[in-house]
Amino acid sequence: MAKISIRRRDPLKQDEVLTFAQRLIEFSKRHRKRVMAGVLAAVLAIMGMTAFRYWQQSRRDAAAAALTEVRPKLESKVQSQEVLKELEKIVSRYGGQPAAREAALYRAHILYQLHKYEEAAQAYKELLADPVIQKEPGMSALVVESLSYCYEGLGKYEEAGQVLQPWLDKASGAFQSDLARRLAWLYERAGKSPEAKKYWEKLLEKPPSPALVPYLKEKLAAGPEAASQK
């Protein structure tokens, strides 16, 4: 039987028996400047992130406080240029903050109430470009509907309908019925009878109320000569 011999391992070299912590210390000693620079960069990054978060929170709180001061004036039945200027200041100073977005909505609504339809339409279009509002279907639908009323106020009935059109298939229930009825009415006012008929037919497929069926049939039977009704 072959003799089994046990070979002794050579003594480990000194750098192989160093612990991870010891090797790290040795590395730090050899590359002290680089290590210090890295630590300093990390500290500065953490400080920068902390400062940015604090700045963001400060802006959020300041915007909310500014809107709180204006809010009592918004409850007045008669709005004024002074309120608009205060809202504009909040929007321009704290853009991107939740309170500034709310102020922009109030501003657009007041412009509409004052019959400044062009300015109101522009304000609503700017809101639609906001990524936060784009991610909220309910808010987007509200802004789109408001924008359509601005175009209606300007007598641009076809543009008002075009704004609402993409939302018809997204909507459901009573809101979808309201949109279909509004689209039919807008295209009638715009003199676009074929388009109007399409929406009267859609509304007849799922009438919001049985009582509306005779009216819808009358609208479809009347054809292009039908007088527009709200």
Describe this structure in words.
The chain has 230 residues and is mostly helical. The chain has two domains: 48-70 and 80-154; 168-230, no CATH class. It has helices at residues 14-17, 20-30, 32-74, 81-93, 98-113, 117-128, 131-134, 137-153, 157-164, 173-189, 193-205, 213-222. Helix 4 (81-93) runs antiparallel to helix 5 (98-113), helix 9 (157-164) runs antiparallel to helix 10 (173-189) and helix 10 runs antiparallel to helix 11 (193-205). The longest helix has 43 residues, at 32-74. The protein is elongated and about 95 Å long. The chain starts with 13 loop residues before the first helix and ends in an 8-residue tail after the last helix. 21% of the residues are buried.
The gist of it:
This protein is 73% helix and 0% strand. With 230 residues, the protein is mainly α. The chain is elongated, with a radius of gyration of 33 Å.
